[in-house]
Amino acid sequence: MSPVTYAFGIAAAVLALVAIIELMRRGTLRERHAVWWFVGGVLALVIAVFPQTLTWAAQTLGITVPTNLVFFVAIGLLFLVSLQYGAELTRVEEKLRTLAEQSAFQENRIAQLERRLDDRSARAERADGDPHE
Length: 133
Description:
There is one protein chain. With 133 residues, the protein is mostly helical. The protein contains 4 helices and no strands.
């Protein structure tokens, strides 16, 4: 591996980790969503600093081409991120449905109370407004 490739790998992994931490610091990315991204960044940094680790892991797992292991791990991490976001989306949709139902019930109740108040006001005006009847 050339020194330029080695340096580029380390820089890219560090940049990814810095980006993840900065997004968490700003509140753009919550910790529970950053877990798998952070795991991927740490793995990338370990492989960038110790490239022989990738070769060793590939040989240990019986994978002929170490790059295939990188793709497999990357696809696995993306699958886990997607699964996590899908589960979170399901929870948010359920909360949104519940809130929409509660809002509709409250709007209906307010409309009923306003009608009752209008009816009482109209009756009171009729009772007070025409003393000659």
